[in-house]
Design brief:
Layout: E1 6-7, H1 9-18, E2 26-33, E3 39-46, E4 53-57, E5 60-64, E6 76-82, E7 85-91, E8 97-98, E9 104-106
Parallel strand pairs: 1-6, 2-5
Antiparallel strand pairs: 2-3, 3-9, 4-5, 6-7, 8-9
């Protein structure tokens, strides 16, 4: 059974900090073919499409297209701040391996 991805409070808070909803934007999380492990994440601000899954909290939105949903079943979308930088990260239980940078994975 495919469960929708979850979004942490920290990820929604970061979207509020950058003013995504004030600009009419949402965080799009998509899966594309490519990368060093076979699939890669595409994470960017975008406008929702009519068939996107919309996850919302306090007016901030994270959107996932229908093609990417099975790849992100039960994944956790978070925001991480470390000394080397800050970024949105995905903890994906469906990935059997991933590259060192965390943007590419295989199933």
């Amino acid at each position: 059974m495919n469960l929708p991805p979850k979004v942490t409070d920290r990820a929604f808070a970061r979207l509020a900090e950058i003013g995504a909803s004030a600009q009419g934007q949402a965080l799009r999380v998509a899966v594309e073919g490519g990368g060093c492990s076979g699939f890669q994440y595409d994470i960017r601000l975008d406008e929702p499409a009519s068939d996107d899954l919309v996850l919302e909290q306090s007016g901030e939105r994270v959107i996932v297209d229908q093609v990417s949903l099975p790849f992100l079943s039960n994944a956790v979308i978070d925001f991480s701040e470390e000394l080397i930088g800050a970024r949105f990260v995905i903890e994906n239980p469906n990935a059997t391996s991933s590259c060192g940078c965390g943007t590419s994975f295989s199933l």
